[in-house]
Amino acid sequence: MLKLWIVALAFGALAAGEKEPPGAVPGCGGPAEKPKEKNYGTVTDTNSCEKRYLEVKGKPVLASCMRHCPRKNASYPLRNGERCLQFMKKGFLLERADESKNTCRLGLCLFGKCRRLRNLYPVMCTVPQDKEDLRE
């Protein structure tokens, strides 16, 4: 019985020495962190390779001229001449509340890089949800 009282007193002393109530897990109960904004959506194919996309008027356009394959730890350039978009974020000086804050410039893929076309105005673009393409 004496041992039981000693254990109970030791546990009480340990619990009294903590600043937080017992059972509180660090990091819980605080405000949830806001997820970071993405600059592109990804489409994963059957080989687990990813392509990055943006949308213009509801149509997907490449955001990167590279295909990333994490399983093989490699990246491959896409075909030259594919249309692509360069993402530009307008973080300030928004004149209208209904205007998208994301703008893109149209370009063409050339040896794995998106080369911007000259004399073209920026277009409004959106970041699509991530998808899986299960076609072979």
Automatic annotation (TrEMBL):
GO terms for molecular function: C-C chemokine binding. GO terms for cellular component: extracellular region. It comes from the Eukaryota. Keywords: Disulfide bond, Glycoprotein, Secreted, Signal. Residues 1-17 form the signal peptide. Salivary chemokine-binding protein which binds to host chemokines. This is Evasin. It comes from Amblyomma parvum (South American tick). The lineage of its organism: Eukaryota, Metazoa, Ecdysozoa, Arthropoda, Chelicerata.
